[in-house]
Amino acid sequence: MVGKNKPFIVFVISGEFYAKKLSEGLEEAGFKIQAFEKESLALKFLEKNNVQGIFLTNHSFEKSKSLIEEIKKNGNPAALFCSQTQCSSENIAELLNHGCDEFFLKTCPEIEIIARIKAVLRRSERGHHRQIAANINLDTDKFNFCGATINPSHLEIIFDEKNKFKLGKKELGIIYYLASNPGVVISRNSLIHAVWGAHADTRSRSVDQYITKIRVLFEKHAEGLGSLRTLHGIGYWYDAKTLQKKKVNS
């Protein structure tokens, strides 16, 4: 993996003086830089490497927007920066709403750009350490799910004193979303976006595998997961009342 010892920024550029000068300034400030003139090569690089930041420059508004969507849909957590010669306030707002973390006009002084990049990366690092999935973090309170106690701060599920197990981050996110939406039909896409993030690829079958892991866990250490139904072609339905009825009848 790259960027292990230094903050790492990937530049996606078109061979211009502005990007060359800024990348030199960032390197002097302690960043490691990898520049690409072709977007396709940058995207392939990002598939195999973890980086802390991505800087898009010398692109039109539409091209920047398209690249942001492409990067985000693959679940890349890197901070995104954009720079253009000129851009309307409406377009800047749209880029920020699409996932850009900071926008710079090329008239912005280099010293300010570097300082703002560092500030974004500091905030991103602090938030990343606490985040479990897109919808849950380590500070989330304990909650109950189908008779088990979920403790996010310890990444733990507790069936009883003798049966405590570590949970993966995605399983925790899924359980938390289900527990927060009892009696509601949950579409597969909404579950994926809630746990993986707004730009996650909804074609992925990962969510089904995680649901299976959760079912197996409850079958081994509880009375199964009868309160969670799979609605084929739609998504899922979690009904906490089903569990309550079982307890009353037993």
Describe the structure.
This protein is α/β, with parallel strands linked by helices and 250 residues long. It folds into 2 domains: 8-132, Rossmann fold (3-Layer(aba) Sandwich), CATH 3.40.50.2300; 136-249, Winged helix-like DNA-binding domain superfamily/Winged helix DNA-binding domain (Arc Repressor Mutant, subunit A, Orthogonal Bundle). Helices cover 45% and strands 23% of the residues. The chain has 9 helices and 14 strands. It has helices spanning 17-28, 39-48, 61-73, 89-97, 110-130, 169-180, 188-196, 206-221, 240-249; strands spanning 8-12, 32-36, 53-57, 79-84, 102-105, 131-133, 136-137, 143-145, 148-151, 156-160, 163-166, 184-187, 228-231, 235-238. It has a 5-stranded parallel β-sheet, with helices on both faces. Helix 6 crosses helix 7 (188-196) and helix 6 (169-180) packs across helix 8 (206-221). It is elongated, with a radius of gyration of 22 Å. It starts with 7 loop residues before the first strand and ends with a helix. Residues 1-5 and 244-250 have low confidence and may be disordered.
